Amino acid sequence: MKRRDFIELGALAGTAILFGNAKNTVAQTSFKSFDLEEVTVTQLQEMMKTGKMTSKDIVQKYLDRIKEVDPKINSVVEINPDAVTIAEQMDKERKSNKVRSPLHGIPVLLKDNIDTADKMRTTAGSLALMDAPAPKADAFLVQQLRKAGAVILGKTNLSEWANFRSDNSSSGWSGRGGQTHNPYILDRSPCGSSSGSGAAIAANLAAIAIGTETDGSIVCPSSINGIVGIKPTLGLVSRSGVIPIAHSQDTAGPMCRTVTDAAIVLGILVGADKTDPVTSQAVKGEKDYTKFLLKDGLKGAKIGVMRQFFGRNARLDVLMETQLKVLKDNGATLVDVNFPTLSKFGDAEYEVLLYEFKEDLNKYLANRGGKMKNLKDLIDFNNQNADKEMPYFGQEIFLKAQEKANLDDRAYRLALLQSKVLTQEQGIDAVMDKDKLDAIFAPSNSPSWMVDLVSGDCGSGYVGSSSLAAVSGYPNITVPAGFLSELPIGVSFFGRAFSEPTLIKIAYAFEQATKARKTPKFLPTYK
Questions:
Q1: The sheet that has 487-494: what strands, in order across it?
Q2: pLDDT over threshold 90, residue 490
Q3: 20 pLDDT exceeds 50?
Q4: How many other C-beta atoms are found inside a 10 Å radius of the C-beta of residue 485?
Q5: How far apart are CA 171 and CA 220, in angstroms?
Q6: Which of 167, 240, 273, 376 is found 20 to 30 A from 161 (Cα to Cα)?
Q7: Within a 10 A sphere around the Cβ of 42, how many other Cβ atoms?
Q8: Would you call 31 helix, strand, or coil by DSSP?
């Protein structure tokens, strides 16, 4: 499926796998029992508080887990050589009664497009940046994590260049890291572009990961890997130090196993950054999102049901009806809604991304320093190293972006205006105002598809609902909702700008009512 078509569908593409009456294989990968399986941030803090474990103990257990499990998944591309030392420092601070935040001593994995000014590389998965100088500074969000006492454990694989290089890419593949696999069924896709972050957290390789999204890149890998993902409102989390696609849509966000953990992390990430003017809006955010974790959060909520994503997969529809009953049984009022603009903004969005990718990436590379100074240099590098960088798919999107003019071009300005109006005023705002809604409900995904490095991702009836929230710059939360043929299914709650408190309240109540998250069995295949 063409990248432009994925935008119109509203998620990174894939084939809807309709397994029928097939039975899964009996065989499964066997790993040792893991002391920290499904452990939460709160539980880790209690372990450290009581002396049951130190941060160093926890970090070492996760490092051992990565060494044992990740060869099957291929989600982590690099371990921070200073992780144990940082953990020891956090332990010393704790002994002196200094606990910085709920993340003090907690291991965190970062997607490999987030700058760290340390001994690790930041490459966006590309071999072109393997020899690039270390970033001059940590990304602002990494600064926030370090100040909070988090231990940066390593970098996760991603769809190279955040899946904005080729029309025929395979989600989760990069020249640097190879192909990441879905930990539930290993021959299935982990989705992208935050594929490594999603797969790693699902497989209990860390407590927390950070992903980034332009359109679907937090929501899709979170839902397809059976975890919680929050794509925040544009302006809550700084974009500085994150290798960009497009400033009008890019944001980072937490990817965790529970809504509680995601809410804790979001509060740490939020902050005004003088190097990223859009974060002047961060004052509208919260410092503590955990106060919205209410078990009765669905009571009195009015939720719009987006049935435009129903009717493509019969088994998915049945599961969604079950989830709608959960919402009603827990006090929510449901209203069927329709978005007349849903199929009208895809072309404009894609045009905006092409223009902004060239502009934003050129600025990033110029500031980073090194041999790769602009997009043209990357194109040339890929051509010169095609056997390693393009063995499966090309760089059609790079070439299209390179042809674009600067952001003063009238075509860009019109496309940006169109995409925002159709998703904001005439989209989410209009629909929610009409029925006085608190949130919109939609399936996050249909079952994952088989990894196919020959044909790439192919979209036949795939269901994904990320685009309205992504293009508008509004928040979106995906929560585990169940399984179809051993593959995770998530549901999304999205809404107006800066409505994270309301969405977290609804998502938490739904999570507590369903308890749908399950640990992967690491099935090698599906028959």
A1: 76-79, 151-156, 107-111, 208-213, 251-256, 228-231, 476-484, 487-494, 439-443, 302-306, 333-337
A2: yes
A3: no
A4: 18
A5: 10
A6: 273
A7: 14
A8: coil
> Does residue 527 form part of some domain?
no
Cis peptide before 193 (omega within 30 of 0): yes
Alpha-helical (H) ranges within 82-228 are: 83-95, 140-147, 160-163, 195-202, 219-224
Q: Nearest 5°: phi and psi at 494?
A: -135, 165
The strand ranges marked E within 205-266 are 208-213, 228-231, 251-256
232/285 Cα distance (integer angstroms): 10
Give the DSSP H/E element, type plus range, for residue 302. Answer: strand 302-306
More confident residue, 30 or 409: 409
What tens digit of pLDDT does each residue of 215-244 get? Answer: 999 999 999 999 999 999 999 999 999 999
Residues 156/139/375/392 CA torsion (nearest 10 deg) = 10
Q: Is the pTM of this model over 0.90?
A: yes
Q: How far apart are CA 314 and CA 331, in angstroms?
A: 26
Residue 6's pLDDT is what? 39
**What percentage of the chain reaches a pLDDT higher than 90?**
91
| Whole-number Å distance between alpha carbons of 395 and 389 | 10
Could you report the per-residue pLDDT of 65-95, keeping only the tens digit for each? 999 999 999 999 999 999 999 999 999 999 9
Confidence of residue 460 (pLDDT cuts 50, 70, 90): low
- Structure tokens belonging to residue 408: 């003063």
Q: Tell me if 526 is assigned to some domain.
A: no
Whole-number pLDDT of residue 459:
53
Assess if residue 77 is contained within a domain: yes
Per-residue pLDDT averaged across 261-273, rounded?
98
Give how far the C-alpha of residue 446 lies from the chain's centroid of Cα atoms, to the nearest Å.
Answer: 16
Q: Which residues form the domain of 56?
A: 3-514
CATH number of the domain at 191, please.
3.90.1300.10
Question: Cα separation of 241 and 244, whole Å?
Answer: 9
Residues acting as catalytic residues: 111, 193, 217
pLDDT average, residue stretch 509-522: 97
CA proximity to 470, closest of 310, 271, 231, 301: 231
Residues 271/409, Cβ–Cβ less than 8 Å = no
Q: Are 322 and 335 in contact (CB under 8 A)?
A: no
The answer to whether residue 522 is domain-embedded is no
What mean pLDDT is reported for the chain?
94
CB neighbours of 233 closer than 8 A, spacing ≥ 6?
251, 281, 284, 285, 473, 474, 475, 497, 498, 499, 500
User: What backbone torsions phi and psi does residue 473 show, to the nearest 5 degrees?
Assistant: 85, 20
Max CA separation in the chain (angstroms): 62
